[in-house]
Amino acid sequence: MKVESLFLLFLGAFFGIVGLVYWFWGYDDGGGVMLLGATLLGFLPGSYYFFWHQRFHGRKYFFWGTVHAPGDRPSDREDAELADGAGTVDSFPGSSIWPFVLGMGAFTVVLSLVFGVWLAFIGVPLILTALTGVTAESRRGGTV
Amino acid sequence: MTDVIAPPGVQEHQELEFPPSTPGGHEPSHGGHEDHGPTGILKWLTSTDHKVIGLSYMITAVVIFYLSGIMALLMRLQLSSPHSSFLSFSQYNALFTMHGSLMLYLFAGPFAFGGLANYIVPLQIGAPDMAFPRLNALSYWLYLTGSITMMMTFFVAGGAAQFGWVAYAPLSSATSSPGAGPDLWIMALALTGFSAIFTGVNLCGTIFYLRAPGMTMFRMPIFTWNMLVTGILILIAFPVLTAALIMLFADRHFGTHIYTAVGCHLVSGAPMASCGSPLLWQNLFWFFGHPEVYILALPFFGIVTEILPVFSRKPVFGYKGMVFATMAIAALSTGVWAHHMFTTGAVLLPFFSFLSLLIAVPTGIKFFNWIGTMWHGQLTFTTPMLFSIGFLFAFLMGGVTGIMLASPPIDFATHDTYFVVAHFHQVLFGTAVFAGFAGLYYWYPKMFGRMLRESLGKWHFWLMFIGFWVTFMPQYVVGLLGMPRRVASYPSNLGWQSYNIVSTVGAFIIGISFAFLLVNFVVSWRKPIPAGNNPWDAQTLEWFTTSPPPHHNYTHLPPIRSERPTWDYNHPDHLTAPHGRNAHTNGNGHGNGKTNGNGKGNGKVTAGV
């Protein structure tokens, strides 16, 4: 997590510095806001990963308090053995029709903005059905 | 949903088979013969396997590439004479708009980060799939429907959009570009924009959370690093485009005046300072548009960085330098957007010129490292290697003219001329086409378990390489002579025609070269030459598994102790220390050139007719 967090924090810091220079040099609202957004995009996930990096090393918060320190993940350790990552990686769907249905729903809704609202009467139910289906599929824990 | 168990370590020189057998004592959930759902057409509709989705992306993108290439040939025919009536002006405008839109939005990016990255990144880091498989499938369906929406523009009243792939305001307003075509263009980009954003999230999540034990960030292949950085750039750039498109649509249909200053003034009576501005579109678009150029370049840098070491039989030279150069390019690319707006007179010339010139430094580091990788290597000029070297020449030329254009005085003189067209095509043809098809030739054996023919591949390369230079070098000259871009006719007394004829001939040579690729596909399909697991004696993890890989990718993994785990496993006498230093040899990593794959290959590069 350390490299991931520093990578994102570096990007956030860079955009922040560039954004400050740009703002005080050019006073461009649009560019300033976009660079602020890019800065936040670096800092928000970067801080999250840094928090977890600290947590793995026994910090409760960013710099203070202590908790159990499980150490780095096997994927972060150069000396990790494959056995260190044994067990379930995660749960993955084998196949699912719902992304296709959701995609078709989005397609139809988008076309409704060009060709007429009547298409939305097809698209919106498709989207709702797909969202319901994909949620139920996850809760049930099986493929459809 | 299936719980996937991490694959165990491989036994010493264990034979891997395809289809892989189920290892004793384990549930067969990390590859093997379990039921993976529907087959046939239903498989392609419902699969959440990153390999199926990656292939779907690539097939769609290549079809779009061919369609868009045909449009380019039609435009070149039109320009081969000064006042040609082969195409009407509006047809020509529609063609250059659609050629740019298809190539940039629907081929180059999706082929790389939708197709190759989808297929290769989980394999390279030892993951069973992408982190969010159903989101991944949704990304593809949004991309496909976006592509269909884009193509539909040819078949509606008023025809396709004619405002160029950049859709500058006020040309893209409802007054200047009425009809359903421009609206469909906007919606197509909105769909593909969301598709790209979802893929960016998926790539970052996969790389951060699903790496195999020992696969630290600084052991990831450079291709995976570049895809991670591309994912971040997508998350920075694409939301801005999507927001800008929504505002453009609102301007066209809902009476807003975000990009129209005059209308805003008349309707609301507000002072001009609080009104919309056509230049705002350029500001927003290029904040997306310039990172987009690197979204289209970085994946292809990654492909070349995978191929050069394999066919030089060396580790990557300067691994960490490559990683930091990629980060630097990505960071700088977000601060240079307004160098596309130098001639508007409304931007900070020194700021954007300085940052634009600065990008040459990390790009130069990459070139230095690519040359260092080949230096004193045992080079073999296979088709992927030839395409990669072709990329180096093409991108270098495009990059050098890019540095020239980063200088405002030169940009003032050449803006909107064929000089910029030539620069732009040398950059993007160099990356998306040379490096993209290098990647296709390189990973095709892994994806299909069969080789493409080397002889046909070399015909493809040499024709394309010659056609590339013949097409685009005259465009630099005719641009400097003053020929503007996006014109369907030009004066006959300015000496431009001969350059245009040469350029047209070159374009058709490129077109012919791509017929060889189609023939190659057909031949490899009808008379397959089995590839084995590792036909190139490659180094990275994806070459350890079978070709094509089983469901969830790995039944076993080798120990991961460097950025070249497959090489380390196959060449125990030439172990690689982290970051490209050779632990036990003289430092240049020469292997014995014979050991192959995981005991299933045939011992040498097998392609050839």
Structural class of chain A: mainly alpha
Q: Largest interface, with Cβ-Cβ < 8 Å?
A: A-B, 65 and 81 residues
Distance between the termini of chain A: 35 Å
Order of helices and strands of chain B: EHHHHHHHHHHHHHHHHHH
Q: For the CA atoms, what is the radius of gyration of chain A?
A: 23 Å
Rounded average pLDDT of chain A: 89
Tally of separate helices of chain A: 4
Q: How many individual helices of chain B?
A: 18
Query: Which percent band covers the strand fraction of chain A?
Result: under 5%
- Would you tell me the structural class of the helices and strands of chain B? mainly alpha
Oligomer: heterodimer
Question: Gap between N and C termini of chain B, in Å?
Answer: 44 Å
How many strands, what sense, and barrel or not for the largest sheet of chain A? none
The helix/strand series of chain A, from N terminus to C terminus, equals: HHEHH
Q: How is the main sheet of chain B built?
A: none
* Helix percentage of chain B: 55-70%
Tertiary shape of chain A: flat
The total of beta strands of chain A comes to: 1
How much beta of chain B, percentage-wise?
A: under 5%
Unreliable runs of chain B, pLDDT <50, ≥5 residues?
17-34, 580-609
**DSSP summary, beta strand count of chain B:** 1
